[in-house]
Design goal:
CATH architecture of one domain: Sandwich
Radius of gyration: 25 Å
Number of strands: 35
Shape: globular
Strand content: 35-45%
CATH class of one domain: Mainly Beta
Strand order of the largest sheet: 2-3-5-4-6-7-10-11-12-13
Number of helices: 11
Length: about 675
Amino acid sequence: MRLVEDLPYEIRTENHFWIPMSDGVRLSGRLWRPLAADHHPVPAVLEYIPYRKRDLTAVRDSMHHPYIAGHGYGCVRVDLRGTGDSEGVLTDEYLEREQQDAEEILAWLAERPWCDGNTAMMGLSWGGFSALQVAARRPESLRTIAISSFTDDRYADDFHYMGGCLLSDNLAEAGTTFAYGTCPPDPEVVGPEWRRMWLERLEANGPWVVEWLRHQRRDGYWRHASVGEDYSRVQCPVLASSGWADGYSNAVLRLMENLDTPVKGLVGPWSHRYPHMGVPGPAIGYLQEVVRWLDHWTKGEGSGVEKETGLWLWMQESVPPSTSYEERPGRWVYEPHWPSDRVEHRSLPLSENRIGVAEERRSTAPQSILSPLSVGQFAGKWASYSAPPDLPYDQREEDGGSLVYDTEPLEERVEILGPTRVELELSVTEPVAMVAARLCDVAPDGSATRVTYGLLNLTHRNGHQRPESLVPGETYRVEVTLNGVAQAFPPGHRIRLSLSTSYWPLAWPPPRPALMSVHPENSALVLPVRQQAPGEDPHEEVFELPEATPSITTTRTSPGEHEWSVHRNLADNRITLRIIKDGGVLHLEDVDLDVTRKAHETYEAVGDDFTSACGKTAWTMSFSRGDWHARTETYTALECTEEEFRVHATLDAYESGERIFSRQWTESLPRDHV
């Protein structure tokens, strides 16, 4: 990354100011803006997230907000109410009050003397969600948004549920929100009120996973703030990006298909990061793209971006399986609209262990599988963060507990772009069952790299609103949609479809093991095969190299620990996935603050006892300066029986080593066809 200090505009920074809300709560903001804005007002760009601008996002913020400000914008970072240095409490994600606050912030910014009345929003993850949700509310001053790693469907395409299956990230992310939502504000910012504000947060907060488990089907809770309910609400232009290694790889394509407004989509090989920090690489000059986009849609400057709408997608080349990559070889391809005329949905029939065989050679005998709980141990995370290594490993071990279908070795190169579908005729032996479908690139040496995957809770075969129990032994026709991807398969390789009846711990297993029988004569793999456009240059440099401003100075005074390990105890047949993300102690020089952030996740199961599945997440967050020391410890465990989920959680807060708050939760929630 090229670090840039010589920017077109000299800027000033205002590290803290209060933004009053209509209910009396004050939100804490930080501002970077050109000095010239005193006499020549500029548009305001808002990033609005709960991840603590003063410390936990300070390094990242210092690299892109000064950069954008230095190109003629007032960049504002605001902590959501109840987080960082803002007043109030945060008790769940994407609440109506949160979106009302955003509208009030934008209106307040538009009236500042340094602002010309035009605003925009940008953000990654929660910030991307927020910007898209607020855009659908059409605030008067909002001209455009630039969003990364987001979704338009909070139920079916977020970390909660996938294909109606409960994701383990539902627990993992609940652990994250539990930890972040119970941290104290900084006394240097809010003054002596910091302790009262902290205690208010501690009293109001709890394990959000309980509420998420109360809604196991797609009801009004999830429809709220899901922009896909009515795409016509979004009228401003959208710059949308994500990565194939991210859990949020699908929404960019859906926005391109459904929004009736200018959209530019970027999907690279990246994990859950901004594209200018994209890993696996190559990262791109995303901040330059954002500036050009803002220049046109907020200032009316002729940067030409209105002619660059469409999709830029990284067509990935074949790679050996690995849990992490520094770079993914490939090339950028362009689609002016989506769905693309260059994509042909090619239906390949299934037969006994084969894909695409001739009709006269196809087997019609049913094939059955009852997958062990060990299938899924090498699945990686639902959303890769590239630290610790969290991409899927060689799939051959997973295939041992799956139904496997291969093409013949390819005679010519095949490129796919978009979501793959699997059409299945099947029967099962239990009223609640699931199927996991994986598409793999199999090299001549037999190694198998997972390209994409999809899940379906079979009780959701007719929709996520009203699950229907299965009749054991009855035959059903179902369709499993796999995450969209751009992938090339070279000659000599095989394309593999693998089907399993469990995928633990990425997804929670059904209440009981189910034998699934697939009828291949009425089943098929439907590949989105893309034909290369005339004149496409695989060596074309589409984007500039990434730029940013230098980050603030930090010192790691204590090393951290990172681990991703799978353990099998043959004495009791216990399988354990252990994840440690420990950043050690980081000293932020400019605010003289020591920050500790560490998380431990554990997922276990014993043998083929599906009720033994258990997930645990524990966080420690600590902040220290001089004689001020504040620490929170949060813990959440999710267990199950055949009839219910059981949540146990604890929260402990410490000031200068003395525990000042402690609370426990125990909840049981009935399983609803999950």
